[in-house]
TrEMBL record:
One of its GO terms (molecular function) is metal ion binding. Binds 2 Mg(2+) ions per subunit. Pfam families: Gln-synt_C, Gln-synt_N. This is Glutamine synthetase. It catalyses: L-glutamate + NH4(+) + ATP = L-glutamine + ADP + phosphate + H(+). Residues 104-474 form the GS catalytic domain. SMART domains: Gln-synt_C. The gene is glnA. The keyword Endoplasmic reticulum does not apply. Keywords: ATP-binding, Cytoplasm, Ligase, Magnesium, Metal-binding, Nucleotide-binding, Phosphoprotein. It is an enzyme of class 6 (ligase). Mg(2+) binds at residues 129, 131, 212, 220, 269, 359. PANTHER family: GLUTAMINE SYNTHETASE (PTHR43407), LENGSIN (PTHR43407:SF1). Belongs to the glutamine synthetase family.
Length: 474
C-alpha cells in the first residue's frame, strides 16, 4: 500500500485518529496517536518523534530523541476504539536518519535482506501457532511479605463443586482433557469465533480455531503464513485482538507459557520454509519426509544452535516451567516426521511441494517475534552454509515417542537448557551465527543478555510460596 493509498483510506473511512506503533526489545507494543488532520504525506517522510529513554532496553536520557518511521504496508483499522482509528506499525530511526540497531523490526528486515544476499533463496515464510488461555479472573501479588497468584475459569476442572456458580456444574474440562471437545464442555466457541471475526476484519487470513489440551480455557487460533517481518507484524496484531476481545467479554487472555501447574502449557510452534521466487526449496519427493538436502541442513542449523537460540525463542523464566518432559513439551533436540515429542517436527499430512516445511515446536509467546524469527532464520542459514547434517550430528530422525523411552536411551538425547540463565550462557558462548551477518550486533546481544539476566535474578531472589510448604517447619 502506498502512502497515498493510506491517506485515501483515512478519508474514505472517516478516520479521526492515526495510531503510530513500535515494538520494544521485549516484544511489547507502544503507541502515539495523532489526529488524522495532522497526518499527511510528510508524516511518512519525517516520522513521529518519541522519547527512547523511557523504553526499557533502548537509550539513555542523554540521547533519548528517536523517530518512528511509519510503514504504510502495515496499516489496519482498529476494531476496538470508539473513535475511528487507523493503526500503523513503524520502524525506529535515530535523529540523523540511521536505522536503530536495537529496533526489533529493523533486525527482522535485515534478516530478510541477508537471506537474499546469500543466494540461497529470495524469501523465508513463517507461520506461528500461538496458544493462549482465556481466564475469567486473575489475581497476583509479589511484595516484601506476600507472594501469590490465583487464576480461575468457569470451565476449569477444579470448579466441579463451586457453590458460587449455582446450577449444574457438570461438563467441566478435565486436566489434559480439553483437546477439541464440543459444547457444552467447550464453553468458549463464541468468544473464539468473535476473535476470528475481528482478526479477519483487521486483514488477517485465519485458517481455524479450537480448544486446546489444557483445562481452564486453553485456546488456539491459526492464521496464514507470510514473510518474516509481516508475520511478526501479524502476531503483534493477533495478540492485540485476543487481549482486547477477552476484555470486552469480561475475561482476560494470557500468552504465558505456563500459567497452570500440572497441565499443558502454551507454546508457539513455528512453521518455516524458504522459497526462491515461486520455487519451494524444502521439498524433495521420496527423501525422508520429502525434505530436500537444503532443508535438512536448515534443520541442522536450528538444532546445533538451539541452546543459544532458545534464549531468544523462550526468553522468560516461565518458559522453562513449560519445557519439562511429560506435557507435550518439545524438550528433545531431535527431528522427526509427525512426532510431537521432537523439537522439530516435519508435517507429513496433506502436504504439497509448496506446503513442505519444518515445525520448530520449542518457542513460546514470551518471545519477541521479530527477534525470534530472525534468529531462527539465521541459525538455519548457518546450517545451510556449513552443510550441517542433523543425522551425522546425532539429531535423528527419531520416530519414537521419546517420553516413553527407557531412561538409558533418553540420556543419549540432547535436551534444551533447563533454565533461562543456562540459555543465556549458551547465547553468550554461541552468538556468531547472529552477529557475523550484521543482522544482530554484539552490543545488542550484550544488552539483551543483561536485561534477561536481571529478569532471572529478580525471580530467583524472591521467596516462593511453595517454599513455605517445603521449609516452614524446618
Amino acid at each position: 500500500m502506498s502512502v497515498q493509498n493510506v491517506l485515501d483510506l483515512i478519508k474514505e473511512n472517516n478516520i479521526q485518529f492515526v495510531d503510530f506503533r513500535f515494538v520494544d526489545l521485549l516484544g511489547h507494543a507502544h503507541h502515539i496517536t495523532l489526529p488524522a488532520a495532522e497526518v499527511d504525506a510528510d508524516t511518512f517522510v519525517n516520522g513521529v518523534a518519541f522519547d527512547g529513554s523511557s523504553i526499557h532496553g533502548f537509550r539513555g536520557i542523554e540521547q533519548s530523541d528517536m523517530v518512528m518511521m511509519p510503514d504504510p504496508e502495515s496499516v489496519f483499522i482498529d476494531p476496538f476504539t470508539d473513535h475511528p482509528t487507523l493503526n500503523v506499525m513503524s520502524n525506529i530511526y535515530t535523529p540523523d536518519g540511521e536505522r536503530y540497531d536495537r529496533d526489533p523490526r529493523s533486525i527482522a528486515q535485515k534478516a530478510e535482506e541477508y537471506l537474499q544476499t546469500t543466494g540461497i533463496g529470495t524469501q523465508a515464510f513463517f507461520a506461528p501457532e500461538p496458544e493462549f488461555f482465556i481466564f475469567d479472573e486473575v489475581r497476583y501479588e509479589s511484595s516484601m511479605n506476600a507472594s501469590s497468584y490465583v487464576v480461575d475459569s468457569e470451565e476449569a476442572a477444579w470448579n466441579t463443586n463451586r457453590k458460587e456458580e449455582g446450577g449444574s456444574l457438570g461438563s467441566k474440562v478435565a486436566v489434559k482433557g480439553g483437546y477439541v471437545p464440543v459444547a457444552p464442555v467447550d464453553s468458549q466457541q463464541d468468544i473464539r469465533s468473535e476473535m476470528v471475526r475481528l482478526l479477519q476484519e483487521t486483514g488477517l487470513r485465519v485458517e481455524r480455531h479450537h480448544h486446546e489440551v489444557a483445562t481452564a480455557g486453553q485456546a488456539e487460533i491459526n492464521f496464514r503464513f507470510d514473510s518474516l517481518t509481516k508475520t511478526a507484524d501479524n502476531l503483534m496484531k493477533f495478540k492485540y485482538v485476543i487481549h482486547n476481545t477477552a476484555r470486552q467479554y469480561g475475561k482476560t487472555a494470557t500468552f504465558m507459557p505456563k500459567p497452570l501447574f500440572g497441565d499443558n502449557g502454551s507454546g508457539m510452534h513455528v512453521h518455516t520454509s524458504i522459497f526462491n521466487g515461486d520455487t519451494p526449496l524444502f521439498y524433495d519427493k521420496g527423501a525422508y519426509a520429502n525434505l530436500s538436502e537444503l532443508a535438512m541442513h536448515y534443520i541442522g542449523g536450528i538444532l546445533y544452535h538451539a541452546p543459544a537460540l532458545i534464549a531468544i525463542t523462550n526468553p522468560s523464566t516461565n518458559s522453562f516451567k513449560r519445557l519439562v518432559p511429560g506435557y507435550e513439551a518439545p524438550v528433545n533436540l531431535v527431528f522427526s516426521k509427525g512426532n510431537r515429542s521432537a523439537a522439530i517436527r516435519i508435517p507429513i499430512a496433506a502436504v504439497t511441494p509448496k506446503g513442505c516445511r519444518i515445525e520448530f515446536r520449542t518457542p513460546d509467546n514470551t518471545a519477541n517475534p521479530y527477534l525470534a524469527f530472525a534468529a531462527m532464520l539465521l541459525a538455519g542459514i548457518d546450517g545451510i552454509k556449513r552443510k550441517l547434517d542433523p543425522v551425522a550430528l546425532g539429531y535423528g530422525p527419531f520416530d519414537k515417542n521419546i517420553y516413553e523411552l527407557p531412561e538409558e536411551e533418553k540420556k543419549e538425547i540432547r535436551s534444551v537448557p533447563g533454565t533461562l540463565d543456562e540459555a543465556l550462557s549458551a547465547l553468550e558462548a554461541d552468538s556468531d551465527f547472529l552477529t557475523e551477518s550484521g543482522v544482530f550486533t554484539k552490543e545488542f546481544i550484550e544488552n539483551y543478555v543483561a536485561i534477561k539476566r536481571a529478569e532471572a535474578k529478580a525471580v530467583a531472589i524472591r521467596v516462593h510460596p511453595h517454599e513455605f510448604s517445603l521449609y516452614y517447619d524446618c
